[in-house]
Design a protein that fits this description.
Length: 149
């Protein structure tokens, strides 16, 4: 069921996803066949409990809490949205995204391919989407906590 969101709430969620979120595919090697399994995933990480209010707007995904080892670091709340939740959330937000719009479109394309897993070009198309998402999501090399160009 698609939640009915006010335009302001849709814009707010899109902004949070653009700034604090990750839109991507996971990939795991299936040792028995030597092929990969892929899975759609959206993750939003915040240090504020407002994340519970955001999740309540769309009622998809789950929230986990991670206490940091360094006492100077705030705990983090991770809102993880599975493929079915992505099918609900992405159509609501894609056109409002500015930074991660291409990732959202690629993930929606992957989710559409899921109905055609037996197509001859399925694995090559999914691999191409995975590779493109990996490039888009790359943050750069880090050395001693500093980003290096």
């Amino acid at each position: 069921m698609t939640p009915k969101l006010k335009p302001l709430d849709r814009g707010y969620l899109a902004g949070i996803l653009d700034g604090e979120g990750h839109i991507g595919l996971t990939r795991r090697l299936r040792k028995s066949t030597g092929t990969y399994n892929y899975g759609a995933r959206v993750i939003i990480a915040l240090t504020s409990k407002v994340i519970y209010d955001l999740r309540a707007l769309v009622n998809v995904g789950s929230i986990s809490f991670v206490k940091r080892k360094n006492p100077k670091h705030k705990p983090v709340y991770y809102w993880t949205i599975n493929p079915n939740g992505c099918r609900v959330l992405l159509p609501l937000l894609t056109n409002l995204l500015r930074v991660k719009r291409e990732q959202a479109k690629l993930l929606a394309e992957y989710l559409g391919l899921a109905k055609h897993k037996n197509a001859p070009d399925y694995l090559s198309r999914v691999a191409a989407i995975y590779d493109r998402l990996s490039v888009l999501n790359k943050t750069g090399r880090r050395t001693h906590g500093r980003k290096v160009a």
